[in-house]
């Protein structure tokens, strides 16, 4: 279709919208979609679909607007971007549409999923900008579970901590430390140590019931997370295993900790990959025993070697 033909359809849409003929407008936008898509005029089509989706959603026509937004994401996925800044611009546009759609509209979740798929395909990894925007949207809606999920992929420790602090206001006092430790472990599994450390720092500093960024903390789990973050760069299995053993009791508060620490041990400390049985001690027993076995076989080691918190963790802070 020629540009003149497209302009005629757009004029007809303008008239229909002024007369509140939303269905007719929606169908005309879809007509333009099929014709420009065939001609591979992706950028021009994306601009038209963005305008259409925004205008329909502003009129509370959520299903029709969401349909055009889904077509927009499809077009963006077909276009080959040369500039990452352009990708970021379109991510912001789509996130703006998502924010306008009522949370109860089923199509919104589909739009979120497809947008994540598109942005992931662009760089072969999760896009921090998109997940930051989604986390903020979910936080505004007080959907803390979704906000927390997206914040884990945002590479924004301050935002992640803010969400966790607000979420923890609905938790029991005994769960305040468990909330942050779970997230720290998850971020480490995602191999994002920087965000894990930043999140922990802001959470402990600004949480109204903690308000300190240095140990000793009031609970063993917080101390454990602090020391874990501080020994990761050294990559010493000895320090990691000893730390887990020292905090064995605190770490049994959540049965998932063992599995997460097993992965962390493999990723950061070259611990052997092995299925563990909690009844036989799991990571807190088997790895510790293996460590001592290795030391006994090390001819350069002192046979009477002692392990203290100060020597292993290189810290003069008392452990719980």
What does this structure look like?
- The chain is mainly alpha-helical.
- 70% of the residues lie in helices and 0% in strands.
- It contains 17 helices and no strands.
- The chain has helices at residues 3-18, 22-38, 42-58, 62-78, 84-100, 106-123, 128-140, 144-152, 157-168, 176-189, 193-206, 220-231, 237-246, 248-251, 256-269, 282-296, 309-313.
- Helix 4 packs parallel to helix 6 (106-123).
- It is elongated.
- 36% of the residues are buried.
Helix-strand blueprint:
Elements: H1 3-18, H2 22-38, H3 42-58, H4 62-78, H5 84-100, H6 106-123, H7 128-140, H8 144-152, H9 157-168, H10 176-189, H11 193-206, H12 220-231, H13 237-246, H14 248-251, H15 256-269, H16 282-296, H17 309-313
């Amino acid at each position: 279709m020629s540009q003149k033909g497209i302009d005629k359809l757009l004029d007809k849409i303008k008239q229909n919208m002024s007369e509140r003929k939303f269905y007719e407008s929606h169908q005309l936008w879809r007509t333009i979609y099929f014709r420009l898509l065939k001609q591979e005029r992706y950028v021009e089509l994306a601009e038209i679909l963005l305008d259409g989706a925004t205008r329909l959603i502003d009129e509370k026509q959520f299903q029709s607007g969401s349909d055009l937004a889904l077509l927009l994401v499809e077009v963006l996925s077909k276009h080959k971007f040369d500039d990452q800044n352009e990708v970021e611009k379109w991510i912001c546009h789509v996130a703006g549409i998502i924010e306008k759609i009522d949370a109860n509209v089923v199509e919104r979740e589909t739009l979120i999923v497809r947008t994540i798929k598109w942005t992931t395909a662009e760089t072969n990894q999760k896009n921090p900008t998109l997940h930051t925007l989604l986390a903020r949207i979910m936080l505004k809606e007080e959907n803390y579970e979704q906000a927390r999920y997206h914040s884990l992929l945002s590479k924004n420790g301050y935002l992640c901590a803010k969400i966790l602090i607000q979420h923890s206001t609905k938790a029991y006092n005994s769960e305040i430390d468990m909330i942050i430790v779970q997230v720290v472990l998850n971020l480490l599994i995602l191999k994002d140590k920087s965000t894990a450390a930043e999140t922990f720092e802001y959470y402990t500093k600004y949480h109204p019931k903690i308000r300190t960024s240095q140990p000793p903390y009031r609970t063993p789990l917080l101390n454990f997370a602090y020391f874990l973050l501080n020994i990761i760069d050294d990559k010493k299995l000895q320090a990691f295993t000893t730390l887990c053993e020292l905090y064995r009791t605190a770490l049994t508060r959540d049965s998932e900790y063992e599995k997460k620490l097993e992965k962390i041990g493999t990723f950061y400390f070259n611990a052997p990959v092995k299925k563990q049985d909690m009844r036989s001690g799991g990571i807190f027993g088997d790895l510790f025993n293996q460590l001592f076995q290795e030391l006994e076989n090390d001819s350069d080691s002192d046979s009477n070697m002692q392990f203290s918190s100060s020597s292993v963790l290189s810290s003069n802070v008392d452990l719980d």
